[in-house]
Amino acid sequence: MTKVTDFITQELINRGITDIFGYPGGMVTHLMDSLSKHRSRIKAHLCYHEQAAAFAACGYAQISDKVGVAYATSGPGATNLITGIANAYFDSTPTLFITGQVNTYESKGNLSARQKGFQETDIIAMVSSVTKYATCVRNASDIRYELEKALYLAKSDRPGPVLLDIPMDIQRAQVDVATLRGFTPPETPCSKGNEAADTIRNALQCAKRPCVLVGAGVHIAGVADSVREWCGKVGLPVVSSMLAVDCNCENYYGFIGAYGHRAANYIVAKADLLISLGSRLDLRQTGANSAGFAANARLIRVDVDEGELTNVIKPDETPIVANLRDLLPQLLELQSAHDYSDWLGVCDDIRGKLAESESKSIQAPNSIIRELSGLIPANAVICTDVGQNQVWVAQSFKTKANQRVLFSGGHGAMGYSLPAAIGAYYANAATREKQKPTFSFNGDGGFQMNSQELQFLAREQIPVKVIILNNSSLGMIRHFQEMYFDCNYAQTKAESGYTTPDFAKLASAYALDFCRINSSSVGEVADNRELRDALESPRPAIIEVALSDTTYVFPKLHFQKPLPFQEPDLDEALSAYLEGL
Q1: Residue 487 and residue 484: Cα distance in Å, rounded?
Q2: Is the pLDDT score of 433 beyond 70?
Q3: Residue 175 three-state SS
Q4: Which secondary-structure segment (H or E) carries 255?
Q5: Which bin fits 472, alpha (ψ -120 to 50), beta or left (φ > 0)?
Q6: pTM for this model (two decimals)
Q7: Which of 81, 123, 179, 192 has minimal Cβ neighbours within 10 Å of its Cβ?
């Protein structure tokens, strides 16, 4: 006979999951005990907040291509996971969340009482809208079926989070593994890869100015290398969503959207065919005035989730429901329909002219990010938080081959970066052959939401570098207040209630290495010996970039304007030239 939590632990090991994240609690003590017996094969990492554990599971899944796992006790432990669960749902991250629950005999069941057992909470009802599957396991004999089903659903089709709520008495129950019923996955529907490839081939034969838009789905499907190969083979210009800025394709021109690269937005506007691979095309990408998006182009949208295609961007678009894993082998067999070198020349002209114009007004944060990116090695993982820091990294971090950049995209959760970096580090280090550094970019606001995880770094001494872009304000909201609220900076600056700690003292409290550079260091970052030592050290470190409390994200889309019309406005002569291309 085997205890249920021992069975769960062994199943996770069998799936190749090496690291999971959580916080102790009374209703998960049996799971904790089972995990501790197998610590040489699966490590249960103690985070200091359940939300951080959920984000760490997301980071682990995003890098490892395995299911990320986090656990928490009932009641507040379970509810603290919800932000991370929502993050996994909106960014299609395969994750399993295990929550403890009161003993079945303590449950309120059908009673009208709000609660019977201590910390009893109906977590299933709370997370039903942000999970692919969530259930309470009320019979020990169902554990194999429910665990196999949850792990299958987490990875199948469009991935996402699943949750198993397991009462205490079920966790400690003894089961005969040989007699447990298993889960049989449904039959896989016929692939639509051939059909989709034919549609794209026919469209390319008619196009003179095609463009490929790469979304996060390319990483989720594990086909980034195939996309790079196909686009290079055919000679297609490539743009991306923000979440895919690390696509590193040949002929890559940047990410599109409200805060995107001007060149990418102009190229989409000039294209006569836009092939979207795994991108949701939400309002941040198309602009609020989506009628003006890719106005001159036929739009082909490929997505594994038919539901996303119900958000119609262009009335005459071609929606294709297909898994990119099935499509890319077919695309790689296609021969180039045309020589697109003239069109690539136009794209290069657009990029060159805009780069020359914007070099005169680039902001200090963008410059510092660009310089820092030159010091960060290939194969590293870069995590961003949410706010101005996220956009500065997306705009200005120059990625190298095999680097990954992780975002909290759809949910946009502040406090994501540091715990996600911890999870990503363990995903990278799973082979235990080489400990790779991971870099966590943060604003001073988002960092304070999970700063307690510095104790994790101090305890484990893993080489996560925490870079805090400190403008001593909530910069994105402060900018909104400047534009729309007559500079009433309520709760976003020091004089109106928002403050930051002394990060040097904070680093000292956790016994972490610390380095500070100033915005005036533009052009001198690479020569800063103290900074280089902090970045290259095998120890964790905090690096503070001290900025003015008045910072901006530019370019930024004009309200209700098509994508190329970003502020600050371009010189009239340059604008007229680009319009004429």
Answers
A1: 8
A2: no
A3: strand
A4: strand 252-255
A5: left
A6: 0.96
A7: 179
